[in-house]
Amino acid sequence: MKRFYREVAIEQHGSGWRVTLDGRPIKTAGSRLQVVPAAALAEALAVEWAGQNDTIDPTRFVLRDMADYAIDVVATGRAEVQRAIVAFAESDTLCYRGDPDEALWAHQQQRWDPLLTAAERRWDVHFVRVCGIIHRPQPPETLTRLAAVVAAQDDFTLAALHTLTSLAASLVLGLAALETDADIPALWAAAHVEEDWQAELWGRDEEAMSRQAQRGTIFAAAADLVRLLRTGRPVPTGITDPPNRPLAPPHR
Hints:
Elements lengths: L7 E6 L2 E6 L2 E2 L13 H12 L11 H13 L3 H13 L5 E2 L5 H21 L6 E2 L8 H12 L3 H14 L2 H7 L6 H7 L2 H10 L3 H26 L21
Parallel strand pairs: 4-5
Antiparallel strand pairs: 1-2, 2-3
Helix pairs in contact: 2-6, 3-5, 3-6, 6-7, 6-10
């Protein structure tokens, strides 16, 4: 699709904020008005639009897609989204290790146990650690508690948490990434301990590494979305235009 707009701006709309293209407000994929709760998030969304060249690249709308998901899917079906997120706790990546006589097991213990222990203390839960791939259920009390933690999040945070948890195959990592001071690269690396271990042993697959890097970019963007909501601190963009002032198209 060719770029069809020149000026990108943000404006207040009720208690929220929205992006406009040549003065016209944006709609979601589901044809709803895209109104977000924080000016900093609206500015980051505007940056995605302003950063497009003459031909629009849909893959560069990472924040827009999550905002649309919050409005079109989460707002109309919170219970289903919450269940999908909590389901990752039932077989969380961090709980499944290799056999104790393998070197990988010790590596997993070193990388994953501090994260699990921190989650157990924070949420007052217990996770069952499993050696091998045979499923073992987590305590019902743990799942109930985590379901309450997930349910307490607002729609936009739930959209980001769904992305974080799905990419990491871990609710523990997804919740950890919501923290303002979270080390996002370290959390993303923790989600790929086994893959990175195998790569060190047998060599790296460039295509697989590229896919992992692309998914890591989305993981970081989801964490950024939550930070923008909670702290109002935008991701570094170099754009300092105040609200309602058009953002200059990059292709001029």
